[in-house]
Amino acid sequence: MSSSRKKREPGTAVYGIPGATRLPRWFATLLVIVAVLFTGTALAVPVVRSAGSYRTAARTDPSPVAVATLQTASGPLTPLDRDFVKRVRLAGLWEIPAGRMAVAKGGTPEVRTAGQHLIDGHTDLDRAVVDAARTLGLGLPDEPSDQQKAWLKQLDDAQGPDFDRMFANIVRNAHGQVFAVVAQVRAGTQNSTVRDLATTANSTVLDHMTVLENTGLVKFGDLSGPPAGTSAPSQGPNPAPSSGPTTQH
Question: Does 126 lie in the same domain as 196?
Fold first, then answer.
């Protein structure tokens, strides 16, 4: 090597490329630490957010028990309780018009008397169910079901003895079906508002069954039995050929 070549100093160019100034060791170490911390934070944040979202979903997702039974100021409100309140409302929506038909065109005093009992009983019961639904925060139907509308149509089309027979049997069968459900709700509900409504409904339904039977037109052999299990009624009245398969009092 020629002694005339000068020794390269730090920071001078090598092959025309400027040389980098050497950093102090402590500063380089600090940069490494900062880089490691930054990388760890970037990786941890999505994991923490994901875990937080999971915990939030777990808290807000209602369990099946919570959905099935609602807590109210007057006690637990079960699906059967809610269905019962709805059915009491539906009863008035079709039986009050049926009672008016019986009063207007019933062929015997007994049929007309039964019709007036339906009007009076369900008018009072409808007030009670509206108050109960307001207390419980429940919505109520504002028109009869399709099956109930069909029954009303049959009664509206019938005349004379045919009307009397259809009225007595369709309405008596509906009351017999719901009577077992009313008793079940009254015996088992833990909600005081529903219990009071069931007590009133029990007396009303029993009165209506009695006056309908007093017409002498009820064919007991054709009546559907009480509903099986713990659900609402499932059988419809038999006297009219076009009656539907499901009873809704």
Answer: yes
